[in-house]
Amino acid sequence: MHDRPQEESTPPPVYATAEPQAIVAPYPP
């Protein structure tokens, strides 16, 4: 868990760009 603190603090931009809805609703409707 403490191996990559930077990754957790700064998630990949691809995830936000690939699925903008995931951030608003990470869980299914």
Fold blueprint:
Blueprint: H1 5-9, H2 13-18, H3 20-24
Question: Which features would summarize this protein structure in a list?
Answer:
3 helices
Describe the protein in words.
The mean pLDDT is 57. The protein has one domain. By secondary structure, it is mainly α. The protein is built from 3 helices and no strands. It is 55% helix and 0% strand. It has helices spanning 5-9, 13-18, 20-24. Residues 1-29 are annotated as: Disordered.
> Which geometry do the CA atoms define?
elongated
| Assembly status | single chain
Give a quick account of the main beta sheet: strands, pairing sense, barrel closure.
none
Number of helices: 3
Number of domains: 1
Strand content: under 5%
Mean pLDDT: 57
The SSE order reads HHH
Q: Which spans have pLDDT < 50 for at least 5 consecutive residues? A: none
Number of strands: 0
Estimated radius of gyration: 11 Å
Query: Roughly what percent helix?
Result: 55-70%
Region (Disordered): 1-29
Provide a brief overview of the structure.
The protein is mainly α and 29 residues long. It has helices at 5-9, 13-18, 20-24. It is 55% helix and 0% strand.
